[in-house]
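Hi Y.,

Following your request, here is the sequence exactly as I used it, all 125 residues.
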Amino acid sequence: MINKIGKVTVYVEDQEAAKDFWINKVGFVLKMEQPMGPDFSWIEVGPSDDEFMTLVLYSKEAMEQHQPSKVAHPSILFSTTDIESAYEKMKQNGVQVEEMLRMPFGTMFSFKDQDGNDYLLREDK
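Below is the corresponding structure, written out as C-alpha cells. Let me know if you'd prefer a different format.
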C-alpha cells in the first residue's frame, strides 16, 4: 500500500521566507510551487532534483483556519502509486480513513493510527 515516506509538512509563518531559507541557506531545490488561492501556495523543497522526499512549506495561518490542532507538529505524508487501491485496502483493514481529496496538487486522504494520530497518503506517480 505505502511505498515511501513522501513528504513532511512544516507549518511556517511566512512561506516566502521559509522558501528562501531552505533554498538559499540550506541548499535545497524548489521541487514544486502551485497557488492554493489568493494568499497561499503549495510549496515543496528537497535536497536535490533526484530526491523523492520533500518538505512541504505550508502556511501556518491557513492550517490554523482549517484545523488549528495540527500546527503543533509536522505532518507526515506517505506516498503511493495507487491511491484507490490503498484507500480500499485500509478501509478493509479497519483503518479509520477520511474522504478522498482530489486537489490540483494531488489526490490524497487522511487516516488515523491506533492512537488517533493523523497521517496523509497521497498518490505520486
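The helical segments are 15-25, 60-66, 83-92.

Thanks again,
Q.
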